[in-house]
């Protein structure tokens, strides 16, 4: 049982419904132990604002959880009251684990203050019991944000270490799975030094998270015909559309925490590229579309993952066939990825590939990932894509912000089809692909109607 926030009443100055004392803490159906103040999620920092904020997540040794909660929950109640935070202790998850996750929802200052108080409790407990010699601060962060925290050549992380006098390490990519998309940032130093480092680390992570949210929200109206909420294409777990009704019920999160309740990400690590042949992973689906996506050659290893693990998980997640074609020339700067699947599978697979290139720093933090995609269109539809005097293709480029090119003097293939090139960031490319598919369908429908109207030799005309 948890507080259900009446967003309308809170915004209009009405009275919130009364909640029985202790209801948010004692519900038998709760998977985690929650502690928070009913007002902590209201007011100017209420649900509408907070639903896209990045909470602070930390790992603490299991033996310290009791001390953090305190007798009858008094210690954690004091933390939530002093810091105006909502604190979720995921004590029942990962039974037998040596560490438990704690999620702190509050303002930046509230999160930092709660973190300091928890660190001080653990430090005192460690000194009193002599269980451990050192209590480092361990921050959990989604893998998609970590690359921007580290910075080019590790500069951001080195600066934080120098400025705060701490030693910071980050868990390996190999520890990630389809069920766990978070990496552990371990900060070693005194309580004061660790707290100063937490402020700087979370500042970088929040900047990256806010950039991702802004990028998604700008495009929410550009993809007609797709179930955007169900897709969750980015490895940060961001759903494209935030919940329409605000935050309801528990905000507690599991180990694969997703800020906007998106599904877990599919992640892998960078390993060598096969010297020859094509890697093919097939999922059988209806309404197949084929897209030829070109990625930087050095990124192929990251897309494949160790022994093909990442690309297998990606194909399974998206419900698509994914083939990485062998290079025509070893020095080619780009490799072709052939993706076969229906529209939602294309959206998921391409979105993950774009996200993976961003994570692995093939593009800078402020640089949009722009890739070239080719799709085949019937020769009879190519003219419609261009339009009279290039009108349609110009409108398409203005609408989608993608560059759309129908190369002239193409020789149609055996299916009487030609290529259309689309260059742009993910949403621009996706929108252009969908619009071109619409034109193809319109042309096919007109052709079918025309064939139905023309009598065949076996049917005498009247």
From TrEMBL:
Designated name of the protein: Insulin-like growth factor 2 mRNA-binding protein 2
Domain of life: Eukaryota
CDD domains in the cross-refs: KH-I_IGF2BP2_rpt4
InterPro entries, alphabetized: KH_dom, KH_dom_type_1, KH_dom_type_1_sf
Segments of this protein annotated with the region Disordered: 1-50
PROSITE patterns: KH_TYPE_1
UniProt KW keywords: Repeat, RNA-binding
Stretches assigned to the K Homology domain: 52-123, 133-206, 287-358, 369-441
Recorded GO MF terms: RNA binding
Natural source organism: Sinocyclocheilus anshuiensis
């Amino acid at each position: 049982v948890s507080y259900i926030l009446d967003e309308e009443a809170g915004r209009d100055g009405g009275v919130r419904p009364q909640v029985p004392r202790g209801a948010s803490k004692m519900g038998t159906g709760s998977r985690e132990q929650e502690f928070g103040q009913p007002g902590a999620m209201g007011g100017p920092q209420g649900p509408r604002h907070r639903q896209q904020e990045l909470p602070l997540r930390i790992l603490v040794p299991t033996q310290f959880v009791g001390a953090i909660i305190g007798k009858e929950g008094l210690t954690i109640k004091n933390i939530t009251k002093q810091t105006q935070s909502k604190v979720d202790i995921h004590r029942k998850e990962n039974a037998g684990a040596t560490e438990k996750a704690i999620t702190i929802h509050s303002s930046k200052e509230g999160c930092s203050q709660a973190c300091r108080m928890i660190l001080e409790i653990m430090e005192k407990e460690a000194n009193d019991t002599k269980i451990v010699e050192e209590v480092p601060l361990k921050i959990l962060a989604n893998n998609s944000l970590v690359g921007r925290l580290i910075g080019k050549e590790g500069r951001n992380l080195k600066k934080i270490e120098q400025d705060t006098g701490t030693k910071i390490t980050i868990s390996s990519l190999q520890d990630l799975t389809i069920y766990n998309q978070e990496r552990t940032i371990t900060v070693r130093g005194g309580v004061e030094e660790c707290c100063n480092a937490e402020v700087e680390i979370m500042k970088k992570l929040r900047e990256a998270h806010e950039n991702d949210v802004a990028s998604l929200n700008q495009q929410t109206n550009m993809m007609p015909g797709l179930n955007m909420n169900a897709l969750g294409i980015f490895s940060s777990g961001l759903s494209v559309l935030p919940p329409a009704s605000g935050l309801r019920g528990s905000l507690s999160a599991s180990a694969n925490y997703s800020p906007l309740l998106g599904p877990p990400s599919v992640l892998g690590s960078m390993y060598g590229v096969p010297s020859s042949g094509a890697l093919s992973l097939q999922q059988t689906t209806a309404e197949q579309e084929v897209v030829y996506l070109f990625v930087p050659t050095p990124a192929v290893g990251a897309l494949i993952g160790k022994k093909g693990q990442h690309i297998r998980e990606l194909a399974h997640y998206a419900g698509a066939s994914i083939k990485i074609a062998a290079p025509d020339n070893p020095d080619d700067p780009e490799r072709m990825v052939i993706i076969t699947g229906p529209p939602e599978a294309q959206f998921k697979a391409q979105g993950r590939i774009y996200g993976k290139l961003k994570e692995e720093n093939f593009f800078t933090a402020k640089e949009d990932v722009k890739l070239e995609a080719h799709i085949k269109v019937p020769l009879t539809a190519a003219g419609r894509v261009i339009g009279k005097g290039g009108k349609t293709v110009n409108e398409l480029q203005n609408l989608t912000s993608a560059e759309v090119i129908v190369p002239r003097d193409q020789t149609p293939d055996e299916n009487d089809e030609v290529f259309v090139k689309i260059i742009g960031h993910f949403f621009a490319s996706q929108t252009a692909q969908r619009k071109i598919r619409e034109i193809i369908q319109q042309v096919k429908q007109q052709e079918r109607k025309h064939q139905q109207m023309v009598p065949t030799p076996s049917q005498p005309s009247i």
